């Protein structure tokens, strides 16, 4: 018998194909891929992997108690990129609306703290009660290069993060990242500097990707290099709302860390509390900044 303890770097056990950090001695009875306890789905004989069950090639009870779960505890969906596609569709739809309507729509939806709009001919802004701008600005673009960059970012990083979190948790992450980016821009750049774009969401997904890479025990050097280069571009290129980038990055990393490291027994409670905590911080900042501006 091998005296080495299980889980050491020298263990000969294979690693789960969905959770490379977890060693296992169990394999799918259909495709023979190694699967950990989190991925095992009871079948008539042995266990099967989520891929075989989802494709219909297995006989496991996917709708039962052993339904496969994502790394964060969400349900494994057949289309692991559905929310990402919806977000991209919303951004493209709003961009087409801007092309049709013009500057007036931009003036109605962009992030403004408290200022006189020459287009609308009136005082507008979050401090004037238009809180919706904190969300609509995160889906608004004027320049083709701007929306192209953000759509590519949503597709690349959304494709990595959404399958790991599940639809509901991923949607919450995106909304909180976009909101937090706008809130930090409102706090620092308000009242007169307008801001728009899905960059807060994209950087929130980058923050989530960093946490996921560390959780999966990937080589962090290329991850850190990419984040460093992204932040360098953020702070050195003119016309970039660094506040939205940093706010989204921090919120995305915090929310994802809570989702992935919540104790198994209280996973949902901790995840809900983390999302609620970020939301309360955002609301507190908005209330305080609005009071200061008005």
TrEMBL record:
Protein name: Rhomboid family intramembrane serine protease
InterPro entries according to UniProt: Peptidase_S54_rhomboid_dom, Rhomboid-like_sf, Rhomboid_protease_S54
Gene3D superfamilies attached to this UniProt entry: Rhomboid-like (1.20.1540.10)
Record-stated family: Belongs to the peptidase S54 family.
Subcellular location: Membrane
TM segment ranges: 144-161, 168-189, 195-213, 220-236, 242-260, 272-292
Membrane topology: Multi-pass membrane protein
Domain (Peptidase S54 rhomboid) ranges: 129-260
GO BP annotation list: proteolysis
Primary localization: membrane
Keyword Lipid biosynthesis among record annotations: no
Keywords in alphabetical order: Hydrolase, Membrane, Protease, Transmembrane, Transmembrane helix
Superkingdom of the organism of origin: Bacteria
GO molecular function: peptidase activity
Lineage start: Bacteria, Bacillati, Actinomycetota, Actinomycetes, Kitasatosporales
Pfam families (alphabetical): Rhomboid
């Amino acid at each position: 018998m091998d005296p080495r303890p299980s889980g050491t770097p020298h263990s000969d056990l294979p690693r789960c194909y969905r959770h490379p950090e977890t060693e296992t001695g169990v394999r799918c009875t259909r495709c023979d891929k190694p699967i950990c306890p989190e991925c095992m789905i009871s079948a008539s004989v042995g266990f099967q992997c989520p891929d075989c069950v989802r494709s219909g090639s297995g006989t496991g009870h996917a709708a039962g108690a052993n339904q496969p779960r994502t790394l964060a505890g969400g349900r494994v969906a057949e289309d692991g990129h559905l929310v990402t596609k919806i977000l991209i569709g919303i951004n493209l739809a709003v961009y087409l609306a801007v092309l049709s309507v013009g500057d007036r729509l931009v003036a109605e939806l962009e992030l403004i703290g408290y200022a006189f709009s020459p287009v609308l001919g009136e005082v507008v802004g979050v401090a004037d009660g238009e809180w919706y701008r904190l969300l609509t600005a995160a889906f608004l673009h004027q320049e083709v290069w701007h929306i192209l960059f953000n759509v590519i970012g949503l597709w690349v990083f959304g494709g990595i993060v959404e399958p790991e979190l599940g639809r509901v948790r991923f949607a919450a992450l995106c909304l909180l990242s976009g909101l937090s980016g706008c809130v930090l821009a409102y706090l620092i750049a308000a009242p007169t500097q307008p801001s728009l774009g899905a960059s807060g969401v994209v950087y929130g997904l980058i923050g989530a990707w960093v946490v996921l890479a560390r959780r999966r025990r990937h080589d962090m050097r290329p991850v850190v290099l990419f984040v460093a280069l992204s932040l360098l571009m953020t702070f050195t290129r003119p016309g970039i709302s660094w506040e939205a980038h940093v706010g989204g990055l921090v919120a995305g990393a915090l929310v994802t860390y809570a989702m992935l490291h919540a104790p198994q027994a209280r996973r949902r409670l901790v995840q809900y509390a983390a999302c609620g905590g970020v939301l309360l911080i955002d609301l507190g900042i908005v209330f305080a900044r609005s009071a200061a501006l008005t």
